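User: Hi! I have a protein structure encoded as tokens and I'd like to know what sequence might fold into it. I'm fairly new to this, so please keep things simple.
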């Protein structure tokens, strides 16, 4: 989010399109003389419960040896994050963050409504209080910075802005030392040992004071504070900067310190910047139950508005994906593989199942891991013009897989060519980094793709940070240990799958790639590349299409697995974008129930770990009138045979509840339609 037009004493702010109400100024020195010291300023949310405080104080730590800028967070008067210093360490210059005094401040209330191209809700309501403070160092080199804080009812956030000035034109940042001094609690840690990875690992639950400082913790980090609420830390509006991780503080057990991904060519630096420059928002979602964070749009609210004026060409939807099933073909007179006949076979399935896309994955243009391959020419076995023509006749669009290094070198040639061919999207893979250079690569890709009317799906990707609001052609991204791991490991468990909505999914859409119909119980599951199998029940897989947010959803299994099977009718109709999203019930790592609305229809997804559960799902989210609910749930034999799906219909109102039984690793997917004419 870039801050632009001036509205007070040299303090620059971004315009708000609807309602912007100034609620107070604490202007101190528009004549240019700084007021000594920074009195603590408390900024409360509109409902008054959540607050962030900004000030300066002396910290007896090596990172903050003098009066230092800090923040703290509280809920209903109880501290969540204690005084935590903020500092930037620079190459060839003193650190930024200490010895500051006020030049100017301003408060405002933000109340803005906007419509999204798509998402988990149709509309955004940006409703918060904001505080901006312009600061200057009291000693040479007298640099100025601006800190902006926001308080929402469900989150607080802050960010730094580095204005253009003679003593701060171009800077090299060695580290950002932001402390996160949380109250003790249990953390859901996504651990890594270095910065070269693809955000694919299992979560572990650890006490905050017992986490190894050598562990890199990927965001979002979810923590259940002792005797208190839940808090999730992430970032928003990450542009031209390095992705942030956390590490346990060695100096202060239980606290965390920011760690930024270093530049690949100079690992002693995390960013090279030219001012003016906005650093990303540091975001704290807060809730009495982590499920309510699933409803939050704070990451989107803190991100730039769309720069794509017309978005009607952007088509969310469902995708036939031959890769997961190893391009299996059954009952035909040709061999499945990366060839024209196989792709046409999957196009036939996509058309019959009313899917929007076929994804032609790795190897269509050559070796998938060779940066020297040409992404503008297909291999001999793939007649791309024939495939595209056939898909067009069947009403199916094509997405092409491409390796990121090939895209880096050839996208100016390839993307306009893809548009001329009739290709509708690209899946860019293998980045496995989130340093400043790679963050900039992501934006270059989606910007150029938008010019040529291509949607984008990033794999081997880092977490979402709101870029999809600025470029809504960015439909989804991976950045998750997804169903593909079932092909070579037992790591993609039902427990893992009911941790993800409360952790990774808080950042934004995730391309988990659900839809396996070849499934096994805890006793019968065996990982296998061919034929692949998933853990849990078919109804568990169906529920993922409601629980998991992704405007582009894969159907991973081969056509014969789906055709004629209960559940395919649900997959034909379930949307991938929504007008409303509601968390119903659940517990992290145990189970989850989510309801989403598209138009007048509601969909409910329920998933459990390896524990069988009886659930009663209240339907208070429905409107008035009577509805017909169609349930796809585990059969009474589901504990023994997870491929069985029970289908039943019930007439319901908002006063009713639906009782469902979930088998171990089970689930339930529900479609609810009005019996009255809308």
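Assistant: Happy to help. Inverse folding works backwards from shape to sequence: for each of the 678 positions I chose a residue that suits the local structure. Here it is:
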């Amino acid at each position: 989010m870039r801050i632009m037009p001036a509205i007070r004493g040299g303090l620059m702010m971004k315009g708000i399109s609807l309602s912007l109400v100034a609620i107070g100024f604490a202007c101190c020195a528009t004549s240019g003389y700084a007021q000594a010291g920074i009195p603590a300023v408390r900024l409360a949310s509109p409902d008054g419960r959540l607050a962030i405080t900004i000030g300066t104080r002396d910290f007896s730590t090596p990172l903050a040896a003098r009066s230092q800028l800090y923040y703290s967070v509280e809920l209903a008067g109880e501290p969540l994050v204690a005084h935590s210093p903020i500092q930037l360490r620079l190459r060839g210059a003193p650190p930024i963050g200490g010895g500051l005094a006020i030049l100017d401040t301003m408060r405002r209330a933000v109340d803005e409504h906007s419509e999204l191209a798509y998402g988990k809700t149709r509309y955004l309501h940006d409703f918060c209080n904001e505080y901006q403070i312009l600061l200057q160092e009291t000693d040479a080199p007298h640099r100025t910075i601006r800190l902006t804080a926001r308080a929402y009812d469900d989150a607080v956030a802050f960010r730094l802005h580095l204005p253009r000035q003679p003593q701060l034109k171009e800077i090299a940042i060695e580290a950002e030392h932001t402390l996160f001094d949380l109250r003790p609690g249990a953390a859901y840690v996504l651990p890594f040992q270095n910065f070269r990875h693809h955000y694919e690992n299992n979560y572990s639950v650890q006490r905050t004071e017992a986490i190894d400082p050598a562990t890199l913790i990927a965001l979002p980090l979810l923590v259940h504070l002792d005797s208190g609420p839940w808090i999730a830390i992430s970032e928003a509006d990450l542009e031209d900067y390095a992705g942030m991780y956390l590490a346990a503080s060695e100096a202060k057990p239980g606290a965390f310190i920011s760690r930024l991904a270093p530049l690949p060519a100079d690992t002693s630096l995390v960013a090279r910047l030219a001012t003016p420059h906005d650093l990303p928002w540091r975001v704290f979602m807060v809730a009495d139950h982590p499920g309510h964070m699933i409803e939050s749009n704070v990451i989107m609210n803190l991100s730039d508005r769309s720069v794509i004026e017309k978005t009607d060409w952007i088509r969310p939807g469902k995708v036939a994906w031959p890769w997961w099933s190893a391009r299996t073909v059954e009952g035909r007179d040709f061999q499945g593989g990366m060839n024209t006949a196989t792709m046409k076979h999957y196009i036939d399935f996509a058309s019959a199942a009313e899917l929007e896309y076929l994804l032609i994955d790795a190897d269509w243009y050559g070796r998938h891991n060779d940066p020297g391959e040409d992404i503008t020419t297909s291999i001999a076995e793939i007649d791309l013009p024939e495939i595209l023509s056939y898909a067009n006749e069947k009403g199916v669009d094509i997405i092409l897989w491409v390796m990121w290094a090939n895209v880096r070198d050839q996208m100016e040639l390839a993307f306009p060519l893809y548009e001329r061919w009739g290709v509708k999207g690209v899946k860019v893979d293998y980045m496995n980094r989130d340093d400043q250079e790679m963050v900039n690569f992501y934006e270059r890709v989606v910007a150029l793709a938008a010019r040529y009317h291509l949607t984008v799906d990033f794999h081997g990707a880092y977490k979402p940070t709101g870029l999809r609001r600025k470029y809504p052609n960015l439909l989804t991204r991976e950045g998750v240990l997804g169903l593909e791991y079932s092909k070579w490991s037992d790591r993609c468990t039902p427990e893992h799958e009911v941790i993800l909505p409360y952790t990774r999914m808080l950042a934004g859409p995730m391309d988990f790639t659900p839809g396996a119909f070849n499934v096994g119980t805890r006793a019968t599951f065996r990982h296998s590349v061919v034929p692949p199998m998933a853990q849990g029940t078919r109804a568990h897989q169906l529920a993922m299409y409601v629980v998991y947010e992704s405007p582009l959803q894969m159907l991973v299994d081969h056509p014969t697995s789906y055709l004629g099977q209960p559940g395919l009718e649900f997959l034909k109709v379930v949307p991938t974008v929504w007008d409303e999203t509601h968390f119903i019930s659940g517990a992290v790592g145990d189970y989850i129930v989510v309801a989403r609305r598209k138009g007048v229809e509601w969909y409910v997804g329920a998933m459990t770990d390896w524990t069988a559960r009886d659930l009663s799902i209240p339907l208070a989210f429905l409107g008035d009138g009577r509805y017909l609910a169609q349930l796809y749930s585990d059969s009474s034999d589901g504990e023994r045979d997870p491929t069985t799906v029970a289908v039943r219909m019930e007439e319901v109102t908002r006063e009713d509840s639906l009782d469902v039984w979930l088998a171990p690793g089970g689930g339930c997917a529900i479609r609810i339609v009005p019996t009255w004419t809308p």
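A useful reference point when you look it over: The chain has a mean pLDDT of 94. Feel free to ask if any position seems puzzling.
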